[in-house]
């Protein structure tokens, strides 16, 4: 019997290697976090939007990872900045996958870029440079510091009382890391903001009325999740939803 399968859409990059070809990449800490929850991470390397209907029924959850690339602004009526690192193939897949996962009640969890993808797929918009917006903070990581510092707690969030996030955090405030230049501007249709940074930026969303787990967070709960109770409980809630779907799939097979 296999473990519940979690689809992690990969990124497409031209790595700085002597081989000029493109690469399909996935940061290992997302796959490790999934595996540590006793779930099986899976990749469908060349899957595009047209493959979603065939592949989604095979999996028990979808984790949209963070990535240095930005969702291309054309997906929300803007124009990409000349400095943007883009990944049109990932965009094309995830814009379809978000809607399909919600419609099919497949557990969906978006981290950082993943949260932004959920928002854009549901018709929302992004600030292309949060730090350039009057009144908003700089949410980017200190790039020259070691990873431990980059992923260290950076600011507080305020969590809506009565939300599942409050349960996972053990209260209505928590400390989180912060490694992003973009952020939610207008919320997508059907999204409820459940956590906010001190400058008011939306830090977490829930899909209202979703038949399964459907959340996005702007921070990185995969980082040191085993030793950070808030992050661990968030991942555990996603994992539980994946296990439940897996059990349902097996019993109806
Ligand atoms: N590029 C977007 C999304 C930020 C993001 O997902 N960062 C994660 C970086 C580390 C990783 O690869 O997981 C933005 O800047 O807002």
In words, what does this structure look like?
InterPro entries: Class_I_gatase-like, Peptidase_C26, PuuD-like. Keywords: Hydrolase. Involved in the breakdown of putrescine via hydrolysis of the gamma-glutamyl linkage of gamma-glutamyl-gamma-aminobutyrate. It catalyses: 4-(gamma-L-glutamylamino)butanoate + H2O = 4-aminobutanoate + L-glutamate. This is gamma-glutamyl-gamma-aminobutyrate hydrolase. This protein has seven helices and 13 strands. It is α/β, with parallel strands linked by helices and about 250 residues long. It has one domain (about 5-250): Rossmann fold. The strands form three sheets. The chain has a nine-stranded mixed beta sheet, with helices on both faces. Strands 2-3 form a two-stranded antiparallel ribbon. A hairpin with a 6-residue loop joins strand 12 and strand 13. Helix 3 crosses helix 4. It binds ligand LF53FM6H. The ligand N[C@@H](CCC(=O)NCCCC(=O)O)C(=O)O binds near residues 70 and 180. The site of ligand LF53FM6H has 12 residues, from loops.
């Amino acid at each position: 019997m296999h473990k519940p399968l979690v689809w992690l859409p990969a990124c497409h990059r031209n790595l700085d290697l002597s081989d000029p070809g493109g690469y399909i990449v996935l940061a290992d800490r997302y796959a490790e976090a999934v595996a540590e929850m006793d779930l099986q991470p899976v990749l469908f390397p060349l899957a595009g939007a047209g493959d979603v209907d065939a592949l989604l029924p095979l999996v028990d959850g979808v984790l949209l990872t963070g990535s240095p690339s930005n969702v291309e602004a054309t997906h929300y009526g803007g124009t990409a900045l000349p400095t943007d690192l883009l990944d049109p193939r990932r965009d094309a897949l995830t814009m379809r996958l978000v809607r399909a996962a919600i419609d099919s009640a497949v557990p969906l969890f978006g981290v950082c870029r993943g949260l932004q993808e959920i928002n854009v797929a549901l018709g929302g918009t992004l600030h292309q440079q949060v730090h350039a917006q009057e009144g908003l903070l700089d949410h980017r990581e200190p790039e020259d510091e070691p990873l431990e510092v980059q992923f260290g707690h950076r600011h507080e969030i305020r969590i809506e009382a009565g939300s599942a996030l409050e349960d996972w955090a053990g209260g209505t405030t928590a400390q989180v890391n912060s490694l992003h230049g973009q952020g939610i501007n207008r919320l997508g249709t059907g999204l409820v903001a459940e956590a906010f940074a001190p400058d008011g930026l939306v830090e977490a969303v829930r899909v209202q009325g979703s038949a399964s787990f459907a959340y996005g967070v702007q921070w990185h709960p995969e980082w040191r999740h085993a030793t950070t109770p808030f992050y661990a409980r968030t991942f555990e809630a996603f994992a539980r939803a994946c296990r439940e779907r897996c059990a349902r799939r097996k019993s109806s097979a």
